[in-house]
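hi! just following up on the protien thing from before. the input was this:
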Amino acid sequence: MEKRQLGDSGVQVTTVALGSWLTYSGGIGREQTEACTRAAFDAGITLFDTANVYGTGASERAWGEILSDYPREEYVLATKVYFPMGPRDRGLSRKQILKQIDGSLERLQTDYVDLYQCHRYDDSVPLQETMGALTEVVEAGKARHIGFSEWPADRIQESLDIPGVAKFVSSQPQYSALWRAPEKEVIPLCEAHGISQIVWSPLAQGVLTGKYLPGQKVPADSRAANKSMNRFIKQWLKDDVLTAVQNLRPIAGEAGITLSQLALAWVLHQPNITSVIVGATHPEQVHENLKAAEVKLSDDVIAAVNDTLRTAAVS
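and the predicted 3d structure came back as:
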């Protein structure tokens, strides 16, 4: 399976990563969580992405139990900090960062994470304090590298301008053929400074799989029908968006791939992308998504996707 470098860290990760948001935090049962995780590891995925807030520790705890069966040096483990873990436990203050990394490591049953990410930007804490605390975490050996998710471009630049602190190597934005907002500022800035993208929601919450049809009810067994997992998908369930997605079918068919593989391959063909994070509720989904890493799209196919989604995509 193809690997790409994570920013200027020197760490190589697979172009498809397994994520645990909404799924292994309680959206599916423990048995399915284990089956999907083991399927991913056995299929060659090396990057596993989670966060302390997913299920208020449930996702980290599950992976701590499951991944402890595998040699630690054979996979790259990423988690995040920022969102509330309790009434007074949230944000990116020094106190919280140092407290939350210890909690994450305990749940994950490991001495270190490869990537510790700020889940969002914290306007209530001086950036110098946040960067200083992250540097302490790295110097203590509790995290090898640091990253961020959904930071605005000006804050990214400010972090790079602070002397003597650990440098970010990764950005984790929402990005897909339907959500292209990071192309404007974040991706160009990151590319110029050795920071690469680990993309979340590359399938637009599953809409780019084509399973949701215009004018029809969502499938009963889908994410959109699951109250614990459908909070963010509703923005994409408009008939004009779903119609545009269905119009991708001939493009995928001519390329001999599924809509999911087309959507994931489209992201992987964009500049500054290291990996796409996929979720899975069944091992079969892991294997189907992995095939996207092998897909080579021509410029004509990429242009056809862009043209088909032109009125539906957010840029």
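The radius of gyration is 19 Å.
Strands lie at 3-5, 12-14, 16-19, 47-49, 76-81, 113-118, 143-148, 168-171, 196-199, 273-278.
cheers
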